[in-house]
C-alpha cells in the first residue's frame, strides 16, 4: 500500500490533478460532439440514395443533418441498406434534441448538488453505450433509432452545464476562462470526427462509426471515474500543496455547503443572468445557421459543396477552438494583472466574439455571391466567435458560482431551440426559391441576431459576484456572500504525507 501511495505521489509531482482534469475535459468534449454528430455523418452511407432523395434531403433537412454531406462523396453513389426518405431521416436526426433540451437545466442543478463528476461521467458513459447499440436499432426500425437518439440526447444534455459547478470548486477564479475554453474542444472534436468517420465508412462500413465512437467513449468514461474527483478535498492522490493552493485561491473550505435551494426569484429578475441567456441564444443561433446551412448555400448559390473538402470543412472548427484558447488565456492574464476588471474583460471579449460575426454577415450580404469571399467570411466569423469563452460563456461562475450550472442550463435550454429555429427560418425563406436574394435576407437576420445579442450583454452583463449567490437557509440569519462546494462534500479525508 505504501508503495502504491509512493507511486501516486511521484506521478502527482509530474502532473497535477488540475492538469489531468483539463486533459480529461478536453477529450470529454471532443467525444461529446463525436457521439452527437456520428449519425449525421454516417446516415449518407446508411440510406439508399436516389437523385430525388438527395435533393429532398438537402432542401428539407434544415439544421439537423446538413453535415451528412461530410461523408465521402462516393458514399452517396453507393447503395445503402435503409429506405428512409427525407422526412424519416430528419425525424431521426431531430429526435436528438427532444431529449437534449429536457436535461439541460436539471443536469446543471444536479451537478451543483452532487458534483459534476458523476453527472458528466454518467452522461458520457450511457450515451456511449447507446451509440454501440445504434446499428442494432437501425436494423430493427427507424422508430427504434428515433427513440435511441432521443434518449442519447437526454443523457448528453446534462453534460454541458455539469462542468460549471466542477469549475467552481477546482479552478481558481482568475484561471476559469482558460478552463471554460476546454468546452470548445467540441469544435476540435468535430474537426477530427468528420475525416475519421469518413475514412471508416469508406474502409469498413457505416457500422464502424458507431462502434468506434461508442467504444472510445466507454474507455474515456472508465478513465474519468478513475482519475477525476468532485473536489480537491475528495481527491485521494492530490498533494497537500496543490489542494491548499486551489482552496486558498477559491476562498472556500469543505465545511461550507452550497445552498440547498435555488433563489429563483433573484435569478430570474437579475439582468446579468438574462444577459448571459440572451447572448448565448443569439450566438448559438448564429453558429447553428452558419455551420448547418453553409453546405446548402454553397451548393445552390455558388454551385460548390464545401463539405466535399475535408480540410476546408474542418478549418472553421479548428479556428474556433484556437481562438477560444488564445482569447481565454489573454482574458485571464488581463484580469490577473488588473489591466482589466472581470466586468470589462467579459464585455470586451463578448462584444468582439458576438458582434464581429454580425458585422461579417453584413459583409456577406454584399459579397456573398463570390465563392472565395463566402468561404473566408464564414470561416472568419466562426473563428472570432470562439472568443466567447473569454466573454459570457463562463460568466455564470463570476456572478454566481453556486448556481453556475443552473444558469448555464437555462441558457443552453434556450439556445438548443436555435437549431430548430434556424432550420425553420432558412427552410421557409428558401423553399423552392434558392436565390441569392433570399439568402441575403438570411444574412440580415443573422447580422441582427448577433448584434442584438452582443448589445444585450454590453448593457446588462457584469462580472461582479451577486448577493444571492449564497442565500440564507430558510429560517436562518443572512450570511456573507461566498463560494462553496457540493452538498455531499462535508468531510475532509486524511491525506498521507
Automatic annotation (TrEMBL):
**GO annotations under biological process?**
monoatomic anion transport
Which domain of life does the UniProt lineage start with? Eukaryota
A Pfam family found in this protein is MFS_1
**Residues of the signal peptide:** none
Quote a single Gene Ontology cellular component term: membrane
| Primary location class | membrane
Going by the UniProt record, its keywords in alphabetical order are: Membrane, Symport, Transmembrane, Transmembrane helix, Transport
| Domain called Major facilitator superfamily (MFS) profile: residue spans | 20-465
Molecular function (GO) terms for this protein are: symporter activity
Give the location in the cell: Membrane
Bilayer disposition of the protein: Multi-pass membrane protein
Q: Where is this region: Disordered?
A: 470-497
**Composition-biased stretches (Polar residues):** 487-497
Membrane-crossing residues?
20-47, 119-136, 142-163, 184-204, 210-229, 267-290, 347-367, 373-394, 406-427, 439-460
What PANTHER family would the database entry show? GH05102P, SOLUTE CARRIER FAMILY 17
In Swiss-Prot or TrEMBL terms, this protein is called: Putative permease of the major facilitator superfamily
Q: What species does this protein belong to?
A: Corethrella appendiculata
